[in-house]
Sequence to fold (326 residues):
Amino acid sequence: MTDGAAVGRASRPAGGYAAVLVAAAVWGTTGTATHFAPGVPAFVFGAVTFGLGGILLAATTGRSALHAVARPGTRSWVLLGAVSLVVYAVAFYAALAGAGVALGTTVAIGSSPLFAGLVEWGADGRRVTGRWTVATLVSVVGMVVVTLARSEAPGDGSLLLGLGSALLAGLTYATYSWAVARGMHAASPPVPVPAALSGAVSGSAIGVGGRGVVGAVFGLAAVPLVVLAAVAGRDALAVGGNWPVFAYLALVPTVLGHSLYAVGLRRVSASVATLLSLFEPVVAAVLAVLVVGEHLGALGWVGIALVVLGLALLSLPGRARAAPPQ
Fold:
């Protein structure tokens, strides 16, 4: 084995960290973007974002998404990922309505790394590292602090139902991440296609690929979400001024963000990726201060420092083995 090959393998987790952190930063712009479409119900943003974005993701992946659905080795992971994504989209916004934005976001996003670790331990027999545990505790505490520093009014619904929905959102987000990671690894070998069907020379092959799995997951999940948006959100959809925001949410946080997240999931485990995604509320808080004019206060900045510290602990070189299961 050459030194270059070893260095290349060693850099894969670092590249995965970077991809997920950029994805989380992109997701963190969502709240600021919704500020420019006032009066739109939260669930409509979710349905339009994942619905329209899912259609675009499926369209950009083309035949590879169809192969991911048709291929026995990836079909079950695609279906599990799609169902998890739909439930997450509904449960997350139900959590915001019932428990309020601050508490609902904290429980949903903060519980997802813990659920991801449990899913990997129960399904794959993979035990989390001590470093991951410490980094998770520090980052979750920091995320709770920064989120509560931006605390808004509680929701209008049942607090108990809101908290239950938030935990369901955390579980389904972790399950989505795990299913996509497993699906992408199952899709790694190329699928042979006869020359008569592929339009190329004999012996050519079409790989399903990681983007094909993500496109298939979002394409399937988009169907019920688009119906939900069309039926329950038709008033918001009829306002032309809302569409620049809808387009941004579909193209940037969904298409770009989840494409980068998929890149990260090829290099790090779902438990690590969901932990890194805790960077999202940090970006959201900073943008709320700089763009929307919110006041964060000293406690909020302490929370941001704790999240960054936890993520820095995770990314220190030479320790954690972050490669996903083969």
Q: What stands out?
A: Strands lie at 191-192, 205-206.
